[in-house]
Amino acid sequence: MFKPTKLAVLLSSAVALAACGEKEVELKTEQDKVSYGIGYNVGSGMRQEGLEEMNVEAIALGLQDSLADKERRLTMEELTAAFNEVRARQQDKQKAVNDENARAGKEFLEQNAERDNITTLDSGLQYEVLKSGEEGASSPGISDMVTTHYHGTLVDGTVFDSSVDRGQPATFPVGGVIKGWIEALQLMKVGDKWKLYVPADLAYGAQSPSPKIPPNSALVFEVELLSIKNEDS
After folding, report:
1. The pTM is what?
2. Per residue in 54-63, pLDDT tens?
3. Catalytic position from the list 108, 127, 197, 204
């Protein structure tokens, strides 16, 4: 029995978007506006899935046949085979992208490790000290809360998150962040500002938390440790 996948749902839903084609549509009524919103969201989902090249005319034909309660023009076996083929292509394409991201990150870290001011830990995490805090300042433990300012970029310099840009420091538990941060924070002291170079396996790996961070990306952070709140304080 054919079971709709995420890809199948996107394709079947997209008929509403495709039916409009290039026709000028007035968005006056609430129904018009909601219909447009549904179509736009479906289109966004298709784009994220890499389905921009789907046949718009075929999508519209499927919509028309469905609304008219006509018999499908393709058997379930044909549809299943087609969906599986497209899904396999998308997976191969995504794997190639992921592999390229991993390669780029590895090359960046290998070159970066050769710089004199870079410290590379056994885990693969790299850091450089931009500013040191006061002598005798404390370091946080894994159960502590910390307040930091940070600026996060991809290895090509693209910014994906920055408390500095927002003008608002971030407070969070040391044990609640990515592995690279957990390791670095416990080595830092209040007042320290470090630049972290985090391998993909110490960041988010293949599971990207945001479209701004491609899977298997090495990440770069400038982190300033502003304060620590101990668990018992």
Report:
1. 0.62
2. 776 787 787 7
3. 204
